[in-house]
Specification:
Strand content: 15-25%
Radius of gyration: 19 Å
Structural class: alpha/beta
Shape: globular
Largest sheet: 6 strands, mixed
Length: 280
């Protein structure tokens, strides 16, 4: 039976709904033989138990993460593959991003408390996400307090109060590239067409390709060419670009379990052929 790669998967250690063992079991069940867990701003999934279970299931595991970065006033997501999960600079970058993200969430909570929306900073400070559930702390708190009916419903408050993620002081793109490479990995741009405006019905999308060139010039080693939000035509163009320049090629489902309904695929659902992937 044909084997596939899925190099973009999230667990409940960031904003996925499935545990690491559940993710590994689902990958094996769906004929995925090359897997990368790319939780946001953490490599906590990569324990000895994880590597032992992956080996038992016959999975090749590529240590990875998805870092939030700011570049020219915009937020982007960078995938780092093949990283040393004990690298000091990588762990510091992940900790920094987690810290500034939480400070941003706390600022929103304070606005909501001042407006009498039934949330309390003192209560929030001591709140802990229930074991096994992923997602931001604030979204979980709003759900458990009854302010929202689902984790995703909490996202509406960010827009309501004008909170934009491009104002969070995440690490820069250049720093992310340096950190990933310093940890022995390769940095790739995640889902380009979700991060850069792209219209599949336009003839040239010159702005898309121009912005992409600027990001590559910062030292990125490649692109996530295959993704649920990329049409087949764009996938072919991105792979061709990488082939022409000797850049790395990745692909995956961006799986979040039930946390993000927009990702309709299950693990392995993009059917990324092993021979398409290039991480060196």
């Amino acid at each position: 039976m044909k084997q596939f790669a899925d190099l973009h998967v999230h667990t409940n250690l960031s904003d996925g709904s499935d545990s690491v063992p559940q993710v590994l079991a689902l990958a094996e069940r769906n004929n995925v033989s090359l897997l990368s867990i790319t939780d946001h701003n953490t490599v906590a999934a990569y324990t000895q138990d994880t590597f032992r279970e992956a080996e038992r299931l016959g999975l090749s595991l590529v240590p990875g993460t998805e870092l939030d970065v700011i570049h020219q006033g915009k937020q982007f997501h960078i995938l780092g593959f093949g990283v040393d999960v004990k690298d000091r600079r990588l762990l510091e970058a992940c900790a920094h991003n987690t810290q500034v993200q939480e400070a941003y969430n706390l600022d929103l909570l304070r606005h909501m408390e001042r407006d009498g929306l039934g949330v309390l900073e003192a209560e929030y400070t001591s709140y802990a996400i229930p074991k096994g559930r992923g997602g931001w702390k604030l979204l979980n708190y709003l759900l458990d307090r009854g302010t929202t009916g689902s984790l995703l419903e909490g996202l509406t408050y960010y827009g309501q109060y004008g909170f934009k993620t491009n104002t969070i002081p995440f690490i820069s793109l250049e720093e992310a590239v340096s950190v990933v490479k310093g940890a022995g990995g390769v940095p790739l741009l995640a889902h380009p067409a979700e991060q850069i405006p792209y219209d599949p019905y336009k003839g040239d999308n010159a702005g898309f390709w121009q912005e992409l060139e600027g990001l590559l010039a910062a030292g990125l080693a490649g692109l996530e060419c295959i993704h649920p939000l990329h049409g087949f035509g764009l996938q072919r163009e991105l792979i061709a670009l990488c082939d022409q320049r000797g850049l790395c090629v990745s692909g995956g489902t961006d799986y979040h379990g039930s946390f993000f309904s927009k990702q309709k695929q299950t693990i392995g659902g993009q059917f990324v052929p092993l021979e398409t992937v290039r991480l060196v």
